[in-house]
């Protein structure tokens, strides 16, 4: 689908009500807290579909990584992106690219990023494309912070908030887990650990009791 001006006007008219925008500091502080608790350093960050850039900027501000990458499929939003608005310090090597995740997955980076962000993106991607994208993500990031609304959450948005995202593909939580679990371990409802880099013997989350 095309994420051009009409999409952003329809779905992002009230930014303060949007997850990872109105509550962006809470999301960023959660990411910071869980990695600090496990004493894991984050030196490189990638955002896959950064959109308005709120979460990407907030996480970059926290970690001031030496390397950062962001891709955004919408030319409309990409043209609004100014690299200097994202870079937390001059030394951060930042690349922003106008590309969708499927095209990105055809030629992913050779070197991995410590942390990947993917906020409200999967619900706009066909299942057959996710089957290509998710394995590529697992080889490109050690940890992935993923948010995606399930069919039940989209239903609640319609009923409780009178907000209907007509662009979204409706999938169950079970379906998302089926797609993700071969490639990532769920450390929490949002934080995933790549099975390409970690298994039960070498995970840095040795003390985590709830792994599913």
Describe the structure.
The chain is built from 9 helices and 7 strands; from the N terminus they run ααβαβααβαβαβααββ. The protein is α/β, with parallel strands linked by helices and 212 residues long. The protein has a single domain (5-194), classed as Vaccinia Virus protein VP39 (Rossmann fold, 3-Layer(aba) Sandwich). α2 packs parallel to α3 (54-63). The radius of gyration is 17 Å and the shape is globular. The mean pLDDT is 89.
Keywords:
globular; Rossmann fold; 212 residues; 9 helices; seven-stranded mixed beta sheet; alpha/beta
- Percent in helix: 25-40%
Q: Topology as H/E string?
A: HHEHEHHEHEHEHHEE
Largest sheet: 7 strands, mixed
Task: Report the CATH superfamily.
Answer: Vaccinia Virus protein VP39
- Number of continuous helical runs: 9
Under the CATH scheme, which class?
Alpha Beta
CATH architecture: 3-Layer(aba) Sandwich
* Strand segment tally: 7
For the record, give the distance between the C-alpha atoms at the N and C termini, rounded to a whole number: 32 Å
How much of the sequence lies in strands comes to: 15-25%
Structural class: alpha/beta
Write out the strand line-up for the largest beta sheet, numbering strands in chain order. 3-2-1-4-5-7-6
The whole-angstrom Rg is 17 Å
- Mean pLDDT across the residues is 89
Question: Could you write a compact summary of the structure shown?
Answer:
37% of the residues lie in helices and 17% in strands. By secondary structure, the protein is α/β, with parallel strands linked by helices. The longest helix has 14 residues.
């Amino acid at each position: 689908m095309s994420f051009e001006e009409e999409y952003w006007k329809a779905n992002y008219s009230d930014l303060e009500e949007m997850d990872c925008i109105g509550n962006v500091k809470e999301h960023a502080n959660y990411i910071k807290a869980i990695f600090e608790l496990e004493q894991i350093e984050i030196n490189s960050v990638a955002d896959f579909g950064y959109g308005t850039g709120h979460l990407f900027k907030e996480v970059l501000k926290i970690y001031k990584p030496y390397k950062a990458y962001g891709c955004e499929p919408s030319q409309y939003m990409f043209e609004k992106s100014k690299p200097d608005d994202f870079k937390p310090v001059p030394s951060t090597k930042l690349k922003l690219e106008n590309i969708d995740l499927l095209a990105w997955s055809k030629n992913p980076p050779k070197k991995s990023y410590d942390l990947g962000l993917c906020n409200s993106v999967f619900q706009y991607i066909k299942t057959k494309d996710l089957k290509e994208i998710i394995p590529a993500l697992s080889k490109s990031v050690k940890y992935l912070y993923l948010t995606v609304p399930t069919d039940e959450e989209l239903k609640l948005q319609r009923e409780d908030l009178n907000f209907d995202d007509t662009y979204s593909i409706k999938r169950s939580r079970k379906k998302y887990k089926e797609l993700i679990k071969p490639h990532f371990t769920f450390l929490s409802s949002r934080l995933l650990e790549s099975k390409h880099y970690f298994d039960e013997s070498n995970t840095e989350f040795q003390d985590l009791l709830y792994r599913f």
